C-alpha cells in the first residue's frame, strides 16, 4: 500500500524524544521523503530553580524552535483531541509521558507510532532504561510499535532493533544515548518502508513480558541490611543521589528543641564512590565504624569525604544534605550537624523501622 503524503503530529518532551525528532526532521528534508508537514506537540515549559522563576523549555521544544518547526502546546486530553482539526494523518509519540487519546488517534488515517526503549513485551512501562540497568540485564533494545487505542505498550510491533549490550559502566545517560540513536534510525526505517500503512502488519517478539514501573523516591532508598557495595554503586549510577535515614532531634520549633523531641530525618548523599579505590587502607583506618555508621576523612575543607560503612565495604560521598537543607560538602555538613538536630553519625539500618516511621 502506497502512503499518502504524511502530515505528522510529533508528540514528545525529553532528550530521548530529541533523537527521533531530529532523525525524522532530517528524513523530511531528504529527496525520498513523503513527509509534507511536521508539527511538534509538547507540553508547556516548566518553572524551576529558586523561587520557580526560571522557565525551562523541554529538549523537544528547544530543537523545534531552533529549526523553525511549528510548536503546539497540548497537555490535556481535550487539547490533544482538538488537534485533529489540523488534518494530521499520522501521530508519533516518543517519551511524551501521557497517553494519546483514541478520540484523536481514530481520526488519523495511519494512527500512531511509538518508539519504546526496550524489546517489548519485555520492560513495558514508563521506566525501561532504569529497570534494565537496575536489574543487571545483559542487553536491551528498542521497539517501534503502533499506538494501542486504550493501553500503553500494547500496540503491534512493527520493528525491533538488534539486542544492544549493556556495558558494566553504563549510566542512564549513556544507555539512553545509544538507544536514542538506534531507536531514531528504526523509526525512520518504518517511515521509509511505509510499514504504518498496513493495519494488520506486525512482527513476532520472542521476549518474555515484564513491567518497568514508574520510579519514585523509594527506589533511591538504600537498604543497608541487604544491599552490597556493588548494589549501592549501581543504584547511584542509575538513579543519582541516594537516600538514607537517621534518628535526630526535631528543630521545627523552639518547643521541640527544648524538649528534645525525636524524629527521623532523610540523609541524602551524592558523588558516591567505592572508598577503597581512593583510600586503599580504609578497612583499617575506619575499622571502628559499624554498619550504617559514617565518619570523615582527615582532609580539610572541600577535600574532606564522608565515609559510610556498608555491608561489605565502604562508600565515600562529597555532597550531603539533611532534608530541608541544601547540599553541602562533608566539612560544612559536619560543622552544622548539631544545628540540624543530628546528635550522632549512625544511620538506621533496619528497613522495617524506616517503613514503620513513614506509615505514621
Automatic annotation (TrEMBL):
Pfam families annotated for this entry?
Formyl_trans_N
A GO molecular function term, named singly, is: methionyl-tRNA formyltransferase activity
Question: Domain of life here?
Answer: Eukaryota
Q: EC annotation? A: 2.1.2.9
Query: What are the residue boundaries of the Formyl transferase N-terminal domain, all occurrences included?
Result: 7-191
State a GO cellular component annotated for this protein.
Answer: mitochondrion
Q: What class of enzyme is it?
A: transferase
Write down the PANTHER family for this protein, in alphabetical order.
METHIONYL-TRNA FORMYLTRANSFERASE, METHIONYL-TRNA FORMYLTRANSFERASE, MITOCHONDRIAL
What is the name of this protein?
methionyl-tRNA formyltransferase
Amino acid at each position: 500500500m502506497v502512503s499518502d503524503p504524511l502530515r505528522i503530529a510529533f508528540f514528545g518532551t525529553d532528550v530521548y524524544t530529541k533523537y527521533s525528532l531530529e532523525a525524522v526532521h532530517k528524513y523530511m528534508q531528504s529527496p525520498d521523503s513523503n513527509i509534507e508537514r511536521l508539527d511538534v506537540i509538547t507540553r508547556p515549559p516548566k518553572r524551576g530553580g529558586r523561587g520557580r522563576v526560571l522557565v525551562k523549555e523541554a529538549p523537544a521544544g528547544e530543537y523545534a524552535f531552533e529549526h523553525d518547526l511549528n510548536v503546539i502546546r497540548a497537555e490535556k486530553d481535550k487539547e490533544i483531541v482538538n488537534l485533529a482539526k489540523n488534518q494530521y494523518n499520522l501521530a508519533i509519540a516518543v517519551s511524551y509521558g501521557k497517553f494519546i487519546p483514541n478520540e484523536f488517534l481514530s481520526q488519523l488515517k495511519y494512527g500512531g507510532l511509538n518508539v519504546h526503549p526496550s524489546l517489548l513485551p519485555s520492560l513495558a512501562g514508563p521506566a525501561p532504561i532504569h529497570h534494565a540497568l537496575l536489574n543487571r540485564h545483559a542487553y536491551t533494545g528498542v521497539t517501534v510499535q503502533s499506538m494501542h487505542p486504550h493501553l500503553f505498550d500494547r500496540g503491534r510491533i512493527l520493528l525491533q532493533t538488534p539486542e544492544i549490550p549493556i556495558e558494566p559502566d553504563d549510566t542512564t545517560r549513556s544507555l539512553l544515548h545509544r538507544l536514542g540513536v538506534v531507536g531514531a534510525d528504526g523509526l525512520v526505517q518504518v517511515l521509509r518502508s511505509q510499514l504504518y500503512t498496513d493495519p494488520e502488519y506486525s512482527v513476532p517478539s520472542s521476549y518474555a513480558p515484564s513491567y518497568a514501573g514508574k520510579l519514585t523516591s523509594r527506589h533511591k532508598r538504600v537498604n543497608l541490611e541487604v544491599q552490597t557495595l556493588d548494589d549501592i554503586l549501581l543504584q547511584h549510577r542509575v538513579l543519582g543521589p541516594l537516600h538514607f535515614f537517621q534518628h535526630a532531634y526535631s528543630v521545627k520549633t523552639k518547643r521541640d528543641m527544648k524538649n528534645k523531641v525525636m524524629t527521623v530525618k532523610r540523609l541524602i548523599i551524592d558523588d558516591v564512590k567505592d572508598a577503597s579505590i581512593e583510600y586503599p587502607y580504609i578497612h583499617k583506618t575506619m575499622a571502628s565504624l559499624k554498619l550504617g555508621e559514617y565518619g570523615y576523612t582527615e582532609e580539610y575543607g572541600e577535600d574532606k569525604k564522608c565515609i559510610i560503612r556498608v555491608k561489605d565495604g565502604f562508600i565515600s560521598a562529597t555532597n550531603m544534605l539533611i532534608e530541608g537543607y541544601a547540599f553541602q560538602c562533608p566539612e560544612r555538613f559536619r560543622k552544622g550537624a548539631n544545628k540540624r538536630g543530628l546528635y550522632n553519625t549512625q544511620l538506621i539500618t533496619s528497613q522495617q523501622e524506616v517503613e514503620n516511621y513513614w506509615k505514621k
